[in-house]
Amino acid sequence: MSEAIQKQIKLYLIIGLALFVGTVLTVWVADLKVAIMTGIVIAVVIASIKSFLVAGYFMHLFHERKLIYQVLLLTAVFIVVMIGLFIFAFGDQQGAHHGIFNVPVKHVTPADAGHGAAAHDASAPAHHE
Amino acid sequence: MSAHIEIPYNVDERPDTGLYNAKLGVWLFLASEVMLFGALFSSYVLLRTGADSWESGHQILNWKLAMLNTFVLIGSSVTMVMSWSALKMKNLAKFKVYMGLTFLCGVGFLVIKSIEYHAKFEHGLLPNRSTFMAIYFTMTGLHGLHVIGGMIVNGYLLGPGSKMWLTEPQRFTNRIEVAGLYWHFVDLVWIFLFPTLYLLPGK
User: Residue A119's pLDDT band (boundaries 50, 70, 90)?
Assistant: First the structure.
């Protein structure tokens, strides 16, 4: 058992070193002259690899019980739903010309809603009664 | 006369879960923490997307200090897992050295963070300056509170809590494992906070 733990300790040190290198890499990439979105994607990818190493080796997630994976899967589902709600709330902007998915948004005035008339384009002049 | 109550499954694994109770409890707690920080990261993304202009953390924050803090936290994660390995090898003295180093790294992180905060206050970079500064203080402040929470637990396990090693060594080893899970999670959050707040350019 002691020998197995000694091997594990060596692995922990290698992972620690990889995390240090990953941090330097993150800073180096931030200084590159790339498009903002490219920079964001690279930063997220490096951070994801680093977190994969921490969770997998330091938190022993690679050798964990099925129940833990199920808990984490449920958490991931809730995270996706939560972020989805935020995105749809952000996209649902009445009166704006374009929503988050670049779909023209129709504006419904109280007068239209009251008379059951179809919605008209937001760019049309407003009714003044 | 007091009755002795045996708490079940703090050492042995439950037959239905295959885990000792504390481990499942901590993972459930971490799941709630993922939701908490996930909500804050989502807020950051939406506030940034919806803003006409956004300050560059790379320019107004001290990314060099933050990078140093990243090294400190990663180092503390290594020493934390080493302290657990030391107990697995039944070496309490080594455990104390590694856990002591983990605690010191926590202190170092907070000292560096307080230097950073102090400089911000000196220059009038307060939360009311901009949405960016507000979310910077919210996220790093909440993360700092998590570091303090972890240090309280680690300090207890290093000091008075370590007496358990003499009577229930396996239970104590399990305690270190679950304390480690939390500490690594705090490190994990910082891994995402660092590039998000300090390195991304403004617009």
Answer: very low
Q: How far is CA A67 from the centre of its chain?
A: 24
pLDDT in tens, B72-123: 999 999 999 999 999 999 999 999 999 999 999 999 999 999 999 999 999 9
Q: Which two tokens stand for residue A98?
A: 């374009």
Q: Please identify every stretch of chain B with a pLDDT value under 70, giving residue numbers as ranges.
A: 1-2
pLDDT in tens, A4-58: 888 999 999 999 999 999 999 999 988 888 888 888 889 899 999 999 999 999 9
Distances (CA, A) of A29 to A57, B11, B19, B147, B193: 25, 46, 41, 28, 16
- Which pair of tokens denotes residue B172? 């104590």
**Which of B74, B192, B196 should be substituted to probe chain A, the one whose Cβ sees the most A Cβ atoms within 10 Å?**
B74
Q: Sort B142 into a burial class: Cβ within 10 Å, 0-12 / 13-18 / 19+.
A: middle
Query: How far B72 CA sits from the closest chain A CA (Å)?
Result: 10
Cβ pair A75, A83 in contact under 8 A:
no
Using alpha carbons, select from B111, B107, B105 the residue that is nearest to residue B72.
Answer: B105
d(CA B136, CA B113): 12
Q: Which of residues 100-129 of A touch B (CB under 8 A)?
A: none
Note the maximum CA span of chain A.
Answer: 86
For residue B99, the distance in angstroms to the closest alpha carbon of chain A comes to: 15
Residues in chain B: 203
| Helix, strand, coil percentages for chain B (3-state, nearest 5) | 80, 0, 20
Q: Does the distance separating the beta carbons of B199 and A67 come in below 8 Å? A: no
User: Distance (Å, rounded) from C-alpha A14 to C-alpha B190?
Assistant: 20
Report the C-alpha gap between A97 and A120 in whole angstroms: 12
